[in-house]
Design brief:
By secondary structure, the chain is α+β, with helices and mostly antiparallel strands. The chain has a single domain, classed as Aminopeptidase (3-Layer(aba) Sandwich). 24% of the residues lie in helices and 25% in strands. It has seven helices and nine strands, in the order E-E-H-E-H-E-E-E-H-E-H-H-E-H-E-H. Strands 1, 2, 3, 4, 5, 6, 7, 8 and 9 form a nine-stranded mixed β-sheet that branches. This is N-acetyltransferase.
Length: 217
């Protein structure tokens, strides 16, 4: 059981942001029904050396039905998805769930279709994902795997893309943490970042430190 009320009890928030390509509607805590009513831009697809993390709307619908999930959509024309962000609790078999019930939540994806990149949408999605006061009681983490990055679409090397992610997330309080998690250790560009809420106890922070290296304190 989570120590606080689950995210889905909170109403969806809407914001309109301006970009040099036009206005974008952002919505948080999107329900499965809301996502069902939207269309997913076809640029979330499969390319020669890159595949979007989620290429089907049904995948987002399924995640929206998960307890404690926050799905933020970036929309044009009211219901056309051109960007999204996901906060989801780790699966029980993942090491991060062992830090404590309801403590860890993964920033599982931030994605913007190619035509709308470099417009600041990703920053607005992250801001909306992190605006909930409950996150001060939690550790928000993200893992960066270089084989999931759109290096062709951005024209960046893996190291340049990594630095771009740092520039995106560090202003929101994320910092890099070391770990022996096998998938993260496969490539030097891969990374673990986390934002530790201001009300997270020292005991939980220490537990997070040990779990990062697969040790049960």
């Amino acid at each position: 059981m989570h120590p606080n009320p689950p995210f889905e009890r909170y109403p969806s928030e809407q914001r309109v942001v301006s970009t040099d390509k036009g206005g974008i509607l952002l919505e948080s805590f999107c329900s499965a029904q809301r996502i069902e009513a939207c269309t997913l831009d076809p640029q979330f697809g499969v390319y020669a050396r890159y595949k979007s993390l989620y290429t089907r709307k049904e995948s987002l619908v399924q995640l929206a039905e998960t307890e404690g999930a926050n799905i933020v959509l970036a929309l044009i024309h009211g219901n056309h998805i051109i960007g999204f962000g996901l906060l989801v609790h780790p699966e029980p078999e993942e090491r991060w769930s062992r830090v404590g019930p309801g403590i860890m939540i993964e920033l599982k994806a931030i994605e913007v279709c190619r035509d709308w990149r470099s417009t600041g949408i990703a920053r607005h999605i992250v801001e909306m994902l992190l605006s909930h006061p409950r996150l001060e009681d939690m550790i928000v983490y993200l893992v960066g795997y270089s084989w999931t990055w759109d290096l062709d679409g951005t024209g960046k090397s893996a190291q340049e893309y990594r630095q771009m992610l740092f520039r995106l997330f560090e202003p929101f309080g994320f910092r890099e943490f070391q770990t022996n998690e096998p998938n993260i250790c496969l490539k030097p560009e891969n990374m673990l970042m986390a934002r530790i809420g201001s009300r997270v106890s020292t005991d939980i922070q220490n537990r997070f430190k040990w779990i990062r290296f697969g040790v049960e304190p």
